[in-house]
UniProtKB/TrEMBL annotation:
Pfam families: Amidase_3, AMIN. This is N-acetylmuramoyl-L-alanine amidase. PANTHER family: N-ACETYLMURAMOYL-L-ALANINE AMIDASE, N-ACETYLMURAMOYL-L-ALANINE AMIDASE AMIC. GO terms for cellular component: outer membrane-bounded periplasmic space. The keyword Nucleus does not apply. InterPro entries: AMIN_dom, MurNAc-LAA_cat, N-acetylmuramoyl_amidase_3. Signal peptide: none annotated. It catalyses: Hydrolyzes the link between N-acetylmuramoyl residues and L-amino acid residues in certain cell-wall glycopeptides.
């Protein structure tokens, strides 16, 4: 683990990356094991920067102040294929971020900035470590909360044709959800859902809501509403409570495959068979057959749910939204049971965490979060359209 801040003089102009003089070098020190890595960034001038290792999955994050990547792409960096992935872009106002997905646990062994006017070179060296010695910071957000407030970045303008999204603000009515410091989960997630609805509709997306006021809606009725709307994506919104200090940051949940059999049996028993799968009449079928048919449907929807979770996680990380230490998790939540609709539950944050709670009641934070979720939905929908077109070939 490492966290470094270069006390370089504040740049008067925007620094630019010299891609030809920058690199990611991989060097093996034996016949086996992971290689050592060295990231070299050559800039037009010195800038303040930070470097940190975070986990789940292991990543090196480098934040650069007053730096512009212009039209440069990570694939142009020499040695970019030494790691599973690289991405960069605007992070917060006056800050840019580079994220290197690492091939396993690493630690920063050295980092520094050398200035040779007019250029400056930042080097970050990493060595592999054993899992038991891996000590990442709990999250990038926890380490960098004192950076300037993130700017709202533009969202792709291409609306997917015919896309319908069902937003599901959790709780409501007699069920206020989690409560902390005078705020309740049901009101906070409903406010966010309405703001997200407006953003998505402005992009040409058809939006349904399981509730648009402070009313109670049963869990199964929420899924039924999504099927009736022929939704392409079901997004449930929550802001739960955990004991202080146990959790903070956005968390994304998808259905846990290990719970499929039990959940399928419960659904087959509790519901009218015709309500389980859109377009498939299960009336008169026994429980075993109903379960098998739902499992078969889920072989398509589960990867699509996980794909959306990946899109959402990457956009949240790139735009500096605080993430839980384990940003994507599996769960057997009722609203994720639908075998026929890609479904994801997004914990916007934990209402019991003071920082998260301040975010949830902040119009500026919600606006930024809305923009990021909108961008993730657009990106996922475009990927889905490309996947469908490929399957038809």
């Amino acid at each position: 683990m490492g966290l470094l801040l270069a006390p370089a003089a504040i740049a008067q102009e925007t620094a630019r990356l010299d891609i030809g003089a920058s690199s990611l070098i991989s060097e093996k020190k034996g016949w086996w094991g992971r290689p050592s890595l060295e990231l070299t960034l050559t800039l037009s001038q010195a800038v303040p920067y930070r470097a940190v290792i975070v986990g789940d999955p292991p990543r090196l994050i480098v934040d650069l102040k007053d730096t512009d990547f212009d039209e440069l792409k990570p694939s142009q960096l020499f040695g970019h294929d030494s790691v599973p992935g690289i991405r960069w872009g605007d992070f917060r106002q006056n800050w840019s971020r580079i994220v290197l997905e690492l091939p396993g646990p690493y630690d920063i062994t050295s980092a520094g900035q050398r200035t040779l006017p007019p250029q400056a070179t930042i080097r970050v060296a990493l060595d592999p470590v054993d899992e038991e010695d891996f000590a990442p910071l709990p999250s990038a957000t926890a380490a960098l909360r004192n950076l300037p407030e993130p700017a709202v970045l533009p969202v792709p303008a291409t609306p997917p044709e015919g896309l319908t999204v069902m937003l599901d603000p959790g709780h409501g009515g007699i069920d206020p959800g989690a409560i902390a410091d005078g705020e309740n989960e049901a009101e906070l997630v409903l406010k966010f859902a309405k703001e997200l609805k407006a953003s998505l509709e402005a992009k040409g997306i058809t939006i349904g809501m399981t509730r648009d006021s402070d009313v109670f809606v049963g869990l199964e009725a929420r899924m039924t509403a999504a099927r009736e709307a022929q939704a392409d994506l079901f997004l449930s919104l929550h802001a739960d409570a955990l004991p202080t200090g146990q959790a903070a940051g956005a968390t994304i949940y998808v259905w846990t495959p290990r719970a499929d059999n039990r959940a399928a049996q419960q659904l087959a028993t509790r519901h009218d068979r015709s309500d389980l799968l859109s377009g498939v009449d299960l009336k008169g079928k026994d429980d075993q057959l109903a379960s098998v048919m739902m499992d078969f449907a889920r072989t398509d929807t589960q990867p699509r749910s996980e794909n959306f979770a990946s899109f959402l996680t990457s956009r949240l990380a790139l735009h500096g939204i605080g993430l839980h230490d384990r940003p994507v998790q599996g769960a057997a939540f009722s609203v994720l049971k639908s075998p026929d609709i890609p479904s994801v539950l997004l914990e916007l944050g934990f209402i019991t965490d003071p920082h998260d709670r301040a975010n949830l009641i902040s119009p500026e934070w919600r606006k930024r979060m809305v923009a990021v979720v909108t961008e993730a939905i657009l990106g996922w929908a475009q990927d889905e359209r490309a996947r469908t077109a490929h399957l038809r070939q």
